[in-house]
Write a structure and sequence with these properties.
The structure is a single chain. This protein is mainly alpha-helical. It has a single domain, classed as Triger factor/SurA peptide-binding fold. Helices cover 73% and strands 4% of the residues. The protein has 7 helices and 3 strands. Strands 2-1-3 form a 3-stranded antiparallel sheet. Strand 1 and strand 2 form a beta hairpin. Helix 3 packs across helix 6. The longest helix is centred in the last third of the chain and has 36 residues. It is globular and about 55 Å long. The protein starts with a helix and ends with a strand.
Length: 203
């Protein structure tokens, strides 16, 4: 029961963050356009950065940057935080794949069904509905989410496994402040993985 509650909590947190990014994406794509214009599925393959194993699309960086700008920080700081975020996310994804953490299409759609249920009770349900309306149709919106979670779900599986293993080891060693220890360890891990990828900007 405890594991189930923890999993639901993780689902809700990640769903909320994903919804924020989707809303930012829609607002960015529709700014300066006619109100009734619909967002078409993004097919741009312009590369922002390339690492030893992975690559980051320009659209991934742009979405992250807009998210941080809308959080209230300056554009310069948003660019730095977005760069760090996309580097660490891609590095985590590549490491997850290396350690055998994959996801099937069925798993993604099952996760999206949970996300849909989360939306029904979310405080920002109206914002999400407005975001969906900016796509060609609801199916296009969920197809966009499907692409997002191709990376996010393997990362989620991997991080949950790492956290479980770390906390079990810390408990055995008698560390009373396990949560803070994990947070510090995870931040260091993300930095190390991003450094190992040695991302290079394509510009």
């Amino acid at each position: 029961m405890k594991n189930k509650k923890y999993r639901i909590s993780v689902v809700c947190i990640l769903a909320f963050l994903a919804l924020l990014l989707i809303i930012v994406f829609v607002q960015t794509r529709t700014s300066g356009t006619e109100p009734q214009k619909r967002v078409t599925q993004n097919t741009s393959k312009e590369i922002y950065a390339v690492g030893h194993n992975g690559e980051i699309l320009q659209t991934e960086f742009d979405q992250a940057k807009q998210f941080f700008i809308r959080s209230g920080i300056s554009e310069q700081d948003a660019e730095l935080q977005a760069k760090e975020y996309v580097f660490e996310r891609e590095a985590l994804f590549q490491d997850a794949i290396k350690h055998g953490y994959t996801v099937t299409d069925d798993e993604i759609w099952a996760y999206l069904d949970e996300l849909k249920q989360f939306i029904e009770t979310a405080d920002n349900k109206e914002d999400v509905e407005k975001a969906i309306q900016q796509f060609e149709n609801e199916d296009a919106y969920w197809q966009f989410e499907f692409e997002v979670y191709k990376k996010d779900l393997p990362i989620q599986k991997y991080v949950e496994s790492l956290e479980k293993e770390f906390k079990e080891n810390q408990s055995l060693s008698g560390d009373a402040d396990v949560e803070n220890s994990w947070s510090e360890h995870f931040e260091n891990l993300k930095e190390d993985l991003a450094d190992a990828e040695n991302f290079k900007l394509t510009e």
